[in-house]
């Protein structure tokens, strides 16, 4: 009968499943809710229970120790293929489901149990009603303001604020204690206020309650005297405090006194633990995390001021809830085998251990004569097929309990080999070779190896068969190449596999590059001849001072300069090994004088006559005779050595001595076959090496040093890989170099475990608990003894994914784009690794304006990581007035844990985005229509739109449900710019703009002057809707061939009256009858027009000056009397918006002129026009200058009839006079 103890059953089971998924397996709990589960009464209750097994297990629950019939409660749902319960508390009270729950997962091979999960509803009771009387206190005395919040679940977070929700300033004099009370070491007059308010924040319900404000009045009528410190909390000279192992110890000392005392801490029996100690609340609180038994003892806090000191001793007792030393592990046993389950736990007081089988107490289960229970151990002898079961170990004391499931799976499986067949392993000569033979079976297969056609089993030197079946050849030689057969066998069968080993020749540099001394601007060539195994592909690389150069067997450096000086190394790489060699390049000067000197300078001749004297165990003296210096003094001697035992043919630098010396004292290492040579160095370079000295062998000895860079890192959740840097042959000090690997779990009183290995730089420790600290030592050992005692280093077994997610998530929205999320840190025991931080994923569900039922496009989730043991973080870049969802995961070195329950929050309203578009439709002479689209980002509830135009002087407010508006009473042919924005209750958003021009149908009229009797010389006037336009005419010069005029800018569909001044040609017409439409051009934007206006303005200024001079000299203008008689205040210069000349208009814009109707025959009667040239002249004779142009007597307009309602009292002025010249 074979016995198996602490076997790596999980790994083997995984191999089984990988090969044959149908293999039976008892249930294993894979995920469950925490033991103490505080629920939010506003959310559904989810109690997790997941398990695996073959066949897949079924699930059931107990509540408060009795069966919980899930199917009878319509509010309770069990997820398919899972034991997870979802309890819908909608319309129910969460208290109805409080209790102790336990999940059972069973299949035909056993039953596994979850922890007892205590479900409690979070509570935030109201503050009891009270009336606080004002507190009167004298200056300098101490004071305590009590908070005494209601007991909540979990306990609330306490803070003090004023009426303005500002935190009260705290310092060494005023501070908040751990219980929430506010302590004053001494009060000042400034402490008088009526708004000392204690707030309690209940994290689960996200509610904050406040105590009634406390009024404090500080009187200075009888101030207190200065005094030495005394303690306010805790009271007396000593006190006692208990803390649990692994928890957080918080010790508090608050003292009163005047002046304000300072607090300091020390431990009576030793130093405060480094790395785990911190001080808070102005040194009044001492905090120690991850408490161990060593933290028990007396802690002294000292309060000191200028008048003296006070002391208080806090006696700390460390107790321990049960914790694992070695949890029971799953066993896979073959029939007739023996297995042992061990449940080793620690705790104070010592835990009580009980065993169960398939959820039934072992004393109440069916008797099994092959089973024996001895306290923390269960021994299973001669197991039988069909006796698979799940065993539960429960360890408990007054501070808690541990529950572990471990299955015993009885299988009978023939061997299987997992290593792929016909694998080819390649190694370099004299290197170790490892041939794998991974297998599984039940019973565990035995592994044997054969080579080629030999029938003998490979064992003993140079072969080693490891426990996992791997065959190791310590020093592979060419003769070890060939075919190897691995055979795995148990009592159910045999399986074999073939692999191949190829031992390759090493890569060697036969001719290494030589030291070069080259003159400036010459070429330097380095050669590197290499030998390698012909079946391997070599790659040559050249390096200069570690920088890479082109690849080739030779390296040529052309036109060298001083920048080319340095060390050049050729490196030959293959897929299995590499070799390298280096040489130095020195560049000497290139001018004529230096050139002639350098011709006489050469590198030194090599030293000769090497001799070894004063030979000792660890040292020897080397002497030599220098060679010729060749006109350059020797600066240094370089001593090199060759180790003929470990690295024949390779020379290493040993030491350098001054060029004036011819001896050197050499420190040696044991177990080395030394040969020495010497090189001389002058300004030109190194000499050739001297001939090698005779061989000098040092005796073997125990190692002088241990491996360096010792580390312990886990790659899986149940292993620890101990690695180190191997010693070189020179450091081994003797034959048989091995490494003794020692380890033990840190903080656990157990002996060192040890394993000795050779020709490797790592050792894999399997079956470790997840992420626990280990003390590790690696010691060098050879045939002559051990190295020095190594210093332990700390390593950690492998990490596993975190088990739990953060709870008590609270989101505080700072503004429309920023929120601050808070959470409670997860217990360190659930991190199961090195905490790297927390990852918050959040995404926008929809805009709040869309409504709860809207199907908004869910945006891609964003993720922010917050490193370290943070409990809060900020979420930037949020969109206003939106519903967001977030969850939080714990991150360790293995990865991310499960997400927390999704948490929703809303952002407040903000200003909206710009409207999506603004279009102009149906432009007309005096109206147009604007059409717009709502903003793509409402960012709140739209309250309307704002439209501004006419340079911001006109503003309209439009309702939010409108998308068009028609604007009337606009000026024709005018460019408008519109500014349009949306509004919410937070204000206006950014505006968009649009420009538009009201329509003007323009026409052109050709007037044939030959239809008039005589020359048409004078002024042509058009009356349009009561507005007048004038053109100066001159047809007296026949040589121009000019018989007509084109009149532009006439408005279609309007009545136009045309007369000539002095009235020779009266005409009446409609512009759209004789005019062709012509697109309006905005002259105000034309460069030529701007230049013309500037010239006209300059001309007007000159004429004004002339007029004033004439007037001052007493000159009389023939038009002066006409101006006095016919004043017309509405004569204006040419307008920029329509390009007409001297337009006459009523003072009321667009008011029709009475008496300007056109007869039906199309002619204009004399009396129909009140503004002809006859009224302005004397007998019709107009004044012209020498070229026949009109001088412009018409400086004013005659008085209108009273029925036209357009009188003016404006006096004539030079400006009005000059307007007629335009």
From TrEMBL:
Subcellular location(s): the record lists: Cell membrane
Q: Where is the composition biased (Polar residues)?
A: 689-698, 1208-1222
User: Which family does the UniProt entry place this protein in?
Assistant: Belongs to the immunoglobulin superfamily. L1/neurofascin/NgCAM family.
Q: Which UniProt keywords apply?
A: Cell adhesion, Cell membrane, Disulfide bond, Glycoprotein, Immunoglobulin domain, Membrane, Repeat, Signal, Transmembrane, Transmembrane helix
What residue stretches are annotated with the Fibronectin type-III domain? 606-701, 703-800, 805-910, 914-1002
Pfam families for this protein: Bravo_FIGEY, fn3, I-set, Ig_3
Membrane-spanning residues:
1088-1109
Q: What is this protein called?
A: Neuronal cell adhesion molecule a
Matching PROSITE patterns: FN3, IG_LIKE, IG_MHC
Domain Ig-like: from-to ranges: 27-114, 125-215, 229-317, 322-409, 415-502, 506-586
Q: Where is the composition biased (Basic and acidic residues)?
A: 1118-1138, 1196-1206
Q: Name one GO cellular component term.
A: axon
One GO biological process this protein is involved in is: brain development
GO terms for MF: cell-cell adhesion mediator activity
Q: Where is this region: Disordered?
A: 689-711, 1118-1222
